[in-house]
Specification:
284 residues
Length: 284
């Protein structure tokens, strides 16, 4: 496997930029886990987005190993696997029994069972270049489904006319990540990397437009009824891939100063858990 794509310096340049942008997205949930560590409790946060982000990084890492010139995909997704594993470990350490059992089941079914299934099927049912193509389509399908996740949080922003659950810097780096991996895939002529990031770019731009529209609007909070289905739907996809994004939104602790509206606080807390985990799956 060629370590770097020296035949085209632009491929290397966009790969480096994609690594940087995706790494920032992977680190977005840090405030959430600092909070969990300090309080020794996972509160209303969920583990599903992190398990999905880990699975995404694993799939793209396997795909990169089968390629001949995708070293920069290997670096970012290796980092993603490591970071997401730390997040999940901390979650399991401080989660209540029921949440801990649920997390372990997800890890066994998705990250272990699902990945092993993909590994075995791709190994025994396909050979050579056909194996790369089949795995590439698996990555594309998974990435597209993950990139569609921001639709839920965009709907919340429109309904509440508030960008509290959609920090601009997170949307910006997700969009930047999609752009860099899009050009990386095009220059490398790897459309399995490029295609999902077209959708990631479009959704990223839409999020930033919504931010500009609603950032200065002040709304009166009156027990917003946020649908439960929004919880954990935001899973970031970065790197020309997807990713489970980051619980940076969870870092916002504005709700703690609103004791007189405890019910609303609890609802907002759950929403933060889902937003921050926009599936970040650095594919490429």
């Amino acid at each position: 496997m060629a370590v770097f794509s020296t035949h085209n310096p632009f491929v290397f340049a966009f790969g480096i930029l994609g690594n940087i942008a995706s790494f920032v997205v992977f680190l977005a949930p840090v405030p959430t886990f600092v909070r969990i560590y300090k309080k020794k409790s996972t509160e209303g946060f969920q583990s599903f987005p992190y398990a999905v982000a880990l699975f995404s990084a694993m799939i793209w890492l396997y795909y990169a190993w089968l390629k001949s010139d995708a070293f920069l995909l290997i670096t970012i997704n290796s980092a993603g696997c490591f970071i997401e594993t730390i997040y999940i470990t901390l979650f399991i350490a401080y989660a209540p029994k029921q949440a801990r059992i649920f997390t372990l089941r997800i890890l066994l079914l998705l990250n272990l069972g699902g990945f092993c299934l993909v590994l075995l099927l791709s190994h025994y049912l396909a050979k050579g270049s056909s194996r790369v193509r089949i795995l590439g389509w698996v990555c594309v399908v998974f990435s597209v489904s993950v990139f569609a996740a921001p639709l839920s949080i965009m709907r919340v922003v429109i309904r509440t006319k508030s960008v509290e659950f959609m920090p601009f810097y997170l949307s910006f780096f997700l969009t930047l990540s999609a752009i860099t991996w899009l050009f990386y895939g095009l220059l490398l002529k790897d459309y399995y990397i490029a295609v999902p990031n077209v959708l990631g770019f479009l959704f990223g731009v839409c999020q930033m437009i919504l931010y500009v529209i609603y950032k200065n609007l002040k709304t009166v909070v009156e027990e917003p009824k946020l649908p439960e289905t929004n919880k954990d739907n935001e899973i970031l996809s970065t790197c020309g891939v997807e990713e489970a994004v980051s619980s940076e939104l969870n870092g916002h602790e504005n709700g703690e100063n609103m004791k007189e509206q405890q019910e609303e606080y609890n609802g907002n807390k759950d929403m933060r858990g889902s937003n921050g985990d926009q599936l970040i799956g650095c594919q490429a």
